Amino acid sequence: xxxxxxxxxxxxxxxxxxxxxxxxxxxxxxxxxxxxxxxxxxxxxxxxxxxxxxxxxxxxxxxxxxxxxxxxxxxxxxxxxxxxxxxxxxxxxxxxxxxxxxxxxxxxxxxxxxxxxxxxxxxxxxxxxxxxxxxxxxxxxxxxxxxxxxxxxxxxxxxxxxxxxxxxxxxxxxxxxxxxxxxxxxxxxxxxxxxxxxxxxxxxxxxxxxxxxxxxxxxxxxxxxxxxxxxxxxxxxxxxxxxxxxxxxxxxxxxxxxxxxxxxxxxxxxxxxxxxxxxxxxxxxxxxxxxxxxxxxxxxxxxxxxxxxxxxxxxxxxxxxxxxxxxxxxxxxxxxxxxxxxxxxxxxxxxxxxxxxxxxxxxxxxxxxxxxxxxxxxxxxxxxxxxxxxxxxxx
Length: 395
Ligand code: SF4
Ligand code: SF4
Hints:
alpha/beta; binds iron/sulfur cluster; eight-stranded mixed sheet; 15 helices; TIM Barrel; four-stranded antiparallel sheet
């Protein structure tokens, strides 16, 4: 069993087992059963249409030219959906676009007819009082795309006529706040702003008090192939982790990567495209992911479920010569987005993960070790309950 050993005080030792995301106290060979996250289908990604009132410069939908005027007739399709056995297990619907708020009637219909969690991402420019009121009376979560707190951070976000969206996005956010709607902000890293991203996130957190601030690396698009943001993005996440007590909003990109460590669980895949989630397109087709299963690309033939299964870091680590087998982030990583992996590196792993996740996991583990060294933490010898690690990591 692979392990990393930390000497605490000359007498006591802490061990970390990367294959299991478990820690043990003074026991170098405890019995551990891998605790995998469930693979069952629970999340539906719904693309009502690819229409959008914007033309953001890095947008994948526009960049890949898959724009179509087709609009999913949600009311009609709902009858089919609710008759499906698999749909009965769906706990979350995430609506993406195009711009979902071009279809407010459809979103309202889903809000009125689905009991699970609903969320959607929007450019925020179309939000009206009527919409904000509707959202405030439901459990829907609204995610606004914004690249930073100031006008100049958002120059990539433009309308079809090339005018800047920023003033209307802020109007939308203010309406959500006025009606007490739970909302988050989604940001995309750009070469122009990545070096001040952590500060931008602190400002957004203070200024708007969103429930979440997502900070994503851009997906590959033909016109936006930038490879080099991984190091800068890693530094932002490290900075955010160090400042975790200062930020009230949840940072999902930190949580995804560190939750397995806090929970003592093993993550096989970063993306649930062939396991926990499925996608419905405007033409009613049910696919894994609109980027991988894009009809204009042969990726869908090359990225089979069998290959996805064989290429999770956990599987790759079975080869003792592989990088994954030596990686401290093995059970946290999940391999990143397979679409970006194929487009950027011609393999199913988005190798940017190898730059981002191990240093973050290492920092979190060092943090746990330091707490053991500096505080009186009393645990029995043997495996440590994940709950204890969770508290140490976020405290
Ligand atoms: S493969 Fe990549 S783009 Fe597709 S759903 Fe997964 S993370 Fe998103
Ligand atoms: S970060 Fe890279 S080397 Fe480490 S487990 Fe993930 S894919 Fe493998």
